[in-house]
Specification:
This protein is α/β, with parallel strands linked by helices. The chain has a domain at 6-153 and 176-213 and 275-283: Vaccinia Virus protein VP39 (Rossmann fold), CATH 3.40.50.150. The chain contains eleven helices and seven strands. It has helices at 6-12, 15-22, 24-42, 59-68, 81-90, 129-137, 158-167, 190-199, 222-235, 238-243, 248-263, and strands at 49-53, 73-78, 97-101, 114-120, 140-151, 203-218, 270-283. The chain has a seven-stranded mixed beta sheet. The chain is globular. It binds S-adenosylmethionine. Residues 5, 8, 12, 17, 27, 31, 54-57, 59-60, 77-80, 83, 103-105, 120-122, 125-126 line the site of S-adenosylmethionine. S-adenosylmethionine binds next to helix 1, helix 3, helix 4 and strand 2.
């Protein structure tokens, strides 16, 4: 048990967490529309209590807190110390939100205390997702709701598929990743998400596609926006890992290839590129 989610805890407390925090404003701009769709699916009302899993720098926790109001409550949980620090710093004191640094899959959570289990892209990193969701279900009241957004497969997500395609042939190929290994695309298979939630004890499971063209990278000029998109791609997520141990010349060639991909996309002070997600809802049986 000591090793439970250990790689993820280490990673989100090291490079991934710090880089996510560094690019947080741009990532928030990219993820906002997906988070909003998940919030609409959650449909929180005044006075409700929400658990925001993998809350990161807290943008979704703040949005949820605004909707549940002072009679409600949001608990944002994340394993990254730097992101929880950021969430606390960015959230106004008078909002009904508390942040806790913890592994949501095993943290001691008050039993039956929440009306809604919510997440914006924070539930794809568990070593054992079924056990994690079963554990988190214990924190939901009977009849409580689940609503989260997660990425569909990499093949549907241009913001990752196109850059990854561009570096093929530049970066020495490695074994294709296990699509179910913890990571951003591990819930890409709709059938798997349904199986996980069903095995964890949830009912009324619905999994709907949600697509949007999103701003990826930003800058005062078109060129600066493209540079920003390249930087973000090389520093956050799967491509940063693929390039981590590569020599400078390979990194430079990969960077040029990724730049060409983004230069080909529309946008004025950002690069507009397609993202594809699942909006997932379910219920804790009464
Ligand atoms: C892709 S980021 C999304 C962050 C945030 N929800 C957002 O939309 O900006 C995934 C987040 O999940 C967190 N995370 C990963 N595994 C976790 C776990 N077992 N328990 C709690 N948080 C976790 C990471 O630290 C990270 O902040």
């Amino acid at each position: 048990m000591a090793q439970h989610n250990a790689d993820r805890v280490a990673d989100w407390n090291d490079q991934s967490g710090e880089r996510w925090a560094a690019h947080q404003a741009r990532l928030d701009a990219m993820l906002a529309v997906f988070g909003q769709a998940a919030i609409e699916a959650a449909a929180p009302v005044t006075g409700e209590r929400v658990l925001d899993v993998g809350c990161g720098a807290g943008a979704s926790s703040q949005a949820l807190a605004t909707l549940v109001g002072p009679r409600g409550h949001v608990l944002g949980v994340d394993i990254s110390e730097s992101l929880i620090g950021r969430a606390r710093a960015l959230t106004p004191q008078d909002m009904p939100v508390v942040f806790a640094m913890a592994d949501a899959s095993r943290a001691e959570l008050p039993e039956g205390a929440f009306d809604i289990l919510f997440s914006r892209f924070g539930v794809m990193f568990f070593d054992d997702p079924t056990a994690a969701f079963a554990h988190m279900r214990g924190a939901l009241r009977p009849g409580g709701r689940v609503a989260f957004v997660c990425w569909r497969g990499m093949a549907d997500n241009d913001w990752m598929r196109r850059p990854i395609g561009a570096i093929k042939g530049i970066v020495p190929s490695t074994a294709p990743p296990d699509p179910e290994a913890p990571g951003p695309f591990s819930f890409g298979d709709r059938g798997r998400v349904a199986r996980v939630l069903m095995a964890a004890g949830f009912t009324d499971i619905a999994i709907e596609p949600f697509d949007s063209s999103v701003p990826f990278g930003k800058g005062p000029t078109r060129d600066a926006a493209i540079d920003d998109a390249v930087k973000m791609t090389l520093e956050v997520g799967p491509l940063s890992r693929a390039l981590a141990d590569q020599p400078d010349d390979i990194r430079a060639r990969a960077s040029a290839a990724v730049r060409a991909v983004f230069a080909d996309r529309p946008g004025e002070r950002s690069v507009m590129i397609n993202g594809a997600a699942w909006i997932v809802t379910a219920r804790n049986p009464v």
